Amino acid sequence: xxxxxxxxxxxxxxxxxxxxxxxxxxxxxxxxxxxxxxxxxxxxxxxxxxxxxxxxxxxxxxxxxxxxxxxxxxxxxxxxxxxxxxxxxxxxxxxxxxxxxxxxxxxxxxxxxxxxxxxxxxxxxxxxxxxxxxxxxxxxxxxxxxxxxxxxxxxxxxxxxxx
Length: 163
What we know:
- By secondary structure, the protein is mainly α.
- It has one domain: dinb family like domain (Four Helix Bundle (Hemerythrin (Met), subunit A), Up-down Bundle).
- Strands 1-2 form a two-stranded antiparallel sheet.
- Helix 1 runs antiparallel to helix 4, helix 1 runs parallel beside helix 5 and helix 3 runs antiparallel to helix 5.
- The longest helix is centred in the last third of the chain and has 25 residues.
């Protein structure tokens, strides 16, 4: 078991980063064609799912900071190395924004003319489970590309094997 935080939000943050790193490591073995191959699920390709997760995390950081939303990252425009390079900055900003107020803080946001209300805690939960959803799609894509040993990604694997 890793040096594990005991607070659920810190566990979610640590697991999310670890699982992303495992997926990025597995993707390093892919050719450009495999990394960008279209599948009838998720955002269409492994690359697009990874970029989508970063865009969503960045967008939710804006919600937490109550600042205007950045434009979405262009899904078809990044290499794996560029995705890795953006990851820590985006996740650091998200975690900092998530931790600056109590989890029951209510945030109001408008999007496309619709008004929404969230708590900080619900945003943390959504972002980390949303990322897991898209990582699972990536694992399915890797399986379809012939990977027989998929990268570890579950919370249990993180508890047992993360360093």
